[in-house]
Amino acid sequence: KYGIIVSNPPYLTPSWIDEVAREVGWEPRMALDGRSEDGLALVRRLIEQSQSRLKDSGALFIECDYRQTDAVSSLLRQASFTDIQVVRDLGGHERVVWGRLHE
Fold first, then answer.
1. pTM for the structure as a whole
2. Is the pLDDT of residue 46 over 90?
3. Given CB 3.0 to 4.6 Å as the disulfide criterion, which of 32, 41, 55, 70 pairs with 1?
4. Which 3 state secondary structure label does DSSP give 87?
């Protein structure tokens, strides 16, 4: 089992991909598309799978859009993660949500 898992999963919604096309147009669409209307389908899967792969008190870090930090925090809480925190990027935007798994 792992003490830390760090992830940058695809998390953009279909409409956000169009908004940021100029900034990330060189990225393959599959690297951006969160595969659901809220962009969090793969985040949900990651949280679920991490529960069997993290040590007790292991930490899961998830990059997401600043508009998703509340939803990701809630998903972590629902999955028995605690000590949930949001980290800002260099531009001051909420960018990473992380928490610790307690079995």
1. 0.90
2. yes
3. 55
4. strand
